[in-house]
C-alpha cells in the first residue's frame, strides 16, 4: 500500500510486475526459504526495535490525545461549532483514526517474523482504512486552507453553510474511498504454511504500467496539488494581512500589538505549510524512487528506511492539533474553561477584521 503500510515483499517485487499469481507465490516461497539474503533488512530492522517502537508509541499517544481533546472542545462548545471548526474536527477525527489503524498494524506486520497474523478479513479492512484516513487528512487540510483563504481575502463574500460543509466533508470521504479502491482490488492475502509466513500486500500482477499510472496519479492528487493549494492559499492570506491597515488613528502601543499579531499569524502560516510538506515528503520520495528503480534504495536497509519515512508521515497527526487549535487562544480558553470551570475573560478585539480569522 502506497504511503501508509510496510511491504514485506517490496525489495523483491515492488516494480517487476510478475505475470501471474502463481509466479508471485513461487517468488515468495523462494524468498521465505532463504531469508538471510533478501530479508536481511528484517534482521536489521529488529535491531532498531527498542528505538522505533517508543517513537511510534509517542506519536500514537500525542496524536490520539491531542485530536481527542480537539474534538471534545468542538463537540461540547456550541459557539465553536462553525464551518471552519467542523473541517478541523474532521481533520482531528481522521488523524485519530489514522493513529489507531496505521501505527499498530504497521508495527506488528513489520516486526513479526510470521508476517500478517490478523487474518484475511482484517487484511482487507486495514488496508482500506489506512490510506482512506491519510487521504481524508490531506484533503481536509486543503479544504481548511481554501476556507480560510475566502474568509480572509474575501471577508464580505458569503461563507458556505453548515449543510454545504457537511456535503464537502462527505465528498472528501467518498473521494478518498474511491482513490483507494484500485489498491484494495490488488491486495492479496497469501498464506505459506510450510514457510510459516503470511503476507498482506498490494501486488499488480502483469500490470506494471497501470500500477505506475495509479501511483503517480495518487502522488499528484494527494500531495502535489494539495500542497500547491495550501501554499497559494496561505500566501494570499499573508499578503492580505501584510497590506491590512486598521482604520483610524493608532497609538504606538496599538501599532506594536498589531505588528506582533501579524508576525504570529505569519509564523503560524509558515509552520502549517512546512509541516504539511515536510511530514509527507519522505514517504512520497521513497515511493517514487521505489517505482523508478528499486535498486536505488539499499536493499539491506529497505524496511528500516520505509518505516522511518512512515513514522515521519504519521507525525503529521501530532502536529495538526497544535497548528490548527492549541496555538490559538480561543481553543485554549475553551479547554481551560471546561476543565477548570472558570469564567472566561473576553479580550477586546482591537485589530483588523481580516486578521481576526482563526488560522
What report would you give on this structure?
A two-stranded antiparallel ribbon has the order 1-2. It is 70% helix and 3% strand. A hairpin with a 4-residue loop joins strand 1 and strand 2 (197-202). It has one domain (10-222, 279-343): Rhopdopsin 7-helix transmembrane proteins (Up-down Bundle), CATH 1.20.1070. The two termini are 33 Å apart. The protein has helices at residues 10-13, 21-32, 40-47, 49-76, 83-111, 119-153, 162-185, 208-242, 252-292, 302-314, 316-326, 329-340; strands at 187-192, 197-202. Helix 9 (252-292) runs antiparallel to helix 11 (316-326). The protein contains 12 helices and 2 strands; from the N terminus they run H-H-H-H-H-H-H-E-E-H-H-H-H-H.
How many discrete domains? 1
Estimate the global geometry from the Cα principal axes: elongated
State the CATH topology: Rhopdopsin 7-helix transmembrane proteins
Could you say which structural class the secondary elements and strand pairing correspond to? Answer: mainly alpha
Q: Which parts are unreliable, with pLDDT below 50 for 5 consecutive residues or more?
A: 1-6, 8-21, 30-39, 344-359
Count of alpha and pi helical runs: 12
N- and C-termini, Cα separation: 33 Å
